[in-house]
Amino acid sequence: MPTFLMLPPINAEQRTWAERLNADCPELDVKVVEDEAELPQALSSADAGYGWVPPDLLPFAKNLKWLQNPMAGPPPTYYYSELVEHPVVVTNPRGIYSDHIAHHILMYMLALSRGLPYYLDAQRNNHWDRHARRRGYVDIANSTVLINGVGGIGAEAGRLCLAMGAKVVGLDPRCEQPVDFEVSLPEALDDLLPSADFVVTTVPHTHDTEFMWHRERFESMKPSAYFINIGRGMTAKLDDLVDALQKGQIAGAGLDVFEIEPLPDDHPLWRCESVIITPHVAVADAANITERRYELLLDNAKRFIANESLRNVVNKALRY
User: Fold this and answer.
1) Set 280, 292, 303, 311: catalytic member
2) In what order do the strands lie in the sheet with 3-6?
3) Chain segment 243-266, per-residue pLDDT in tens
4) Which of 38, 261, 295, 308 is catalytic?
5) Is 35 helix (H, G, I), strand (E, B) or coil?
6) Residue 15 annotated among the catalytic residues of the structure
7) pLDDT digits over 112-141, tens only?
8) Could you say which of 232, 259, 293, 319 is catalytic?
9) 232 part of the active site
10) CB contact set of 159 (below 8 Å; sequence gap of 6+)
11) What is the distance between the alpha carbons of residues 212 and 281, in angstroms, rounded to a whole number?
12) Which domains are seen in the chain, by residue range?
């Protein structure tokens, strides 16, 4: 019987999943490894696992064939060189958040395009100000939305934008989603950027995407354009973004992720106008995400037992 490990650190959710997985997939021997000191021995007989294997312990995982990554966009250190070279197949939970995060993107777009941050400022000051908005209104139905990263999230956000009448253009190195808009390779970014009214970035943090959003790119955007980062904070230089906002080089931003998290209380971004800040919560309150995570894990476990193709296989060399 194949052995499946829940790898440390262990939380209550994983303990519950282990019990459910043992019941729902009796062909799999599911074990919870609470103490990292037990990992060498446990890994030596493991066929699969959920979590992360530290580099110094990977040599013990000689039989490891499948590893479920808990995160769709982990830090680059998850895919260290030895893991990339190891024959283990890594899968991730991409796709289970797409609708929730796309809704978060649309929240930013609608609020920013209508000037909501300005009206909220007036409301907090008990001020009836019909001219509170200091940036021009953007009609989404006649706008161009540039989506950097057309995975499940970008594809769903693009679908919703198309339904609102926007023109959508996408960028992705290997778009696998069926979409009704043109998707170019990332190299086209600098050519497409100046025409976008909304720039939405959903990409993970990799060596290629780290700080891809910098001063020169903010300067090439329309002064009336909005920047939305829902992917990973380390893709955008906060100092450069703040500078662009303060100089009026872009109209505003919607941000759920940041180079520094939590964002320090004294950071100047808090005081920038026409900016919406949410503290990395695009899916935090989505009640069905936990169940979606488990259903994906169970489906892959059954596929693994049946020697079938797994869902959401990661290209380890590309880190996604």
Assistant:
1) 280
2) 29-32, 3-6, 48-50, 66-68, 89-91
3) 999 999 999 999 999 999 999 999
4) 261
5) coil
6) no
7) 999 999 999 999 999 999 999 998 899 999
8) 232
9) yes
10) 102, 179, 180
11) 23
12) 3-95+287-305 (3.40.50.720), 98-277 (3.40.50.720)
